[in-house]
Amino acid sequence: MISDLEKLLGTPRDGALLRFSLGVQYAKAGEHERAIGYLRDSVASDPLYSAAWKALGKALADAGRSDEALEAYRRGVEAAKRKGDKQAEKEMTVFARRLERQRGS
Hints:
The protein has helices spanning 2-6, 16-28, 32-45, 50-62, 66-83, 86-104. By secondary structure, the protein is mainly alpha-helical.
């Protein structure tokens, strides 16, 4: 799956969705740093892509980078609000609160 997606890099199909898909696949494979890179590319390409912000926050949290994860979730909540994506907004708010509680412990 990953190799098929990587073949599309640099083609007309390259964009936020492709980078998001690669990020998700690398995260599933446990390759958090590669996932983070592709997910950052995705949100840079489309700052209102709430699913990419959520996946970026999770990849950062899984990599032990909680401060960056918290920032990604916060930015994702703002993106979701602007886009009207209530479900993503709620989910990322919950994930951000969990991280804040973990940091406070």
